[in-house]
Design a protein that fits this description.
By secondary structure, the chain is mainly β. It is about 5% helix and about 40% strand. The chain starts with 8 loop residues before the first strand and ends in a 6-residue tail after the last strand.
Length: about 290
């Protein structure tokens, strides 16, 4: 049976092994099983949060950005989604302790000042730069940089991983969903996934030297700005990518970031393209033996 074509999201891809729409009536994400297993259903992952990054040894790291409790609990991205309007919160980059909202290893270039985070089911407010989108009163989340007034230039969100294995890693598989939670009248939006391997520690989210993996954008504009159900079939695009030819040495860092670009129209509102159901697994350097 032919799947419905997404009318709002177009894709320009590079090094993409597959990119398919999810059929109706199936689980919301192909990585829901990974999420379940990582939560304690039997999958043993050699991945752990660290003070300045996520330590990666082997297996699959996954992040669904879903609410896991109230403030004061580790791994709490944001408060509950209100039935209308938005709720504010304060985000802290690379948060690995209690009493703050944030995720270990995850960073944003905006929205880190007090109460500039928002949770929403499609509404916006005059202030707020970092959004967690989801259905009202639900627990699922998708993360994006977004502002109702438009950014003057590119904004970034992403993850820092540290190679905690005993070998050089040379390739990786990356998967995630792109969900559109809001449509704007002013300008199309592009969401670009980029990568950087570096020996430099600390926050490199806005650094230069990143390579580009793929680009996802909206098809132009609409006649009236409105919210959209981002996790619905017609508003979700699944990406499955291969990152090859890297040399990620032991104790070095791999950055993956999504660049939200105003697409030639700075300071104008853009559509809300959010990331959800992220998963990552790396492949070690081949043996030199015959």
């Amino acid at each position: 049976m032919n799947l419905p074509t997404n009318p709002t999201i177009s894709k320009i891809t590079s090094k993409i092994t597959s990119k398919t729409m999810r059929p109706p009536m199936l689980p919301r994400s192909p990585y829901s099983l990974l999420t379940c297993l990582a939560a304690g259903c039997g999958l043993l992952l050699a991945v752990a949060p660290a003070g300045a990054q996520v330590l990666y040894t082997t297996g699959t790291y996954s992040q669904a950005f879903d609410q896991t409790g109230t403030v004061g609990t580790v791994f709490t991205p944001a408060p509950a989604v209100p039935s209308s309007l938005t709720t504010s919160f304060s985000w802290t980059n690379n948060q690995s302790s209690v009493n703050f909202y944030g995720l270990p290893g995850w960073y944003s270039s905006v929205g880190t000042a007090s109460n500039l985070g928002r949770v929403s089911s499609g509404s916006t407010t005059a202030t707020g730069d970092l959004y967690f989108w989801g259905a009202a009163s639900g627990t699922e989340r998708a993360m994006s940089t977004f502002t109702a007034n438009g950014f003057a230039g590119d904004t970034y969100m992403g993850i820092q991983l540290r190679n905690n294995s005993a070998t050089t890693l040379t390739s990786a598989s990356i998967a995630y969903d792109v969900e559109q939670w809001r449509r704007q009248v002013s300008a199309a939006t592009t969401l670009t996934l980029q990568y950087l391997v570096t020996s430099s520690s600390g926050d490199q989210l806005s650094a230069g030297g990143f390579g580009t993996l793929n680009l996802t954008g909206t098809n132009g504009t609409v006649t009236a700005a409105s919210g959209s159900f981002g996790s619905g079939l017609l508003n979700t695009t699944a990406a499955s990518l291969s990152l090859a030819g890297i040399s990620w040495a032991q104790n070095d860092f791999l950055w993956l970031r999504w660049v939200n670009s105003p697409n030639g129209s700075p300071s104008l509102p853009t559509s809300a393209l959010a990331v959800d159901n992220f998963s990552f697994s790396a492949i070690p350097e081949p043996s030199s033996g015959a």
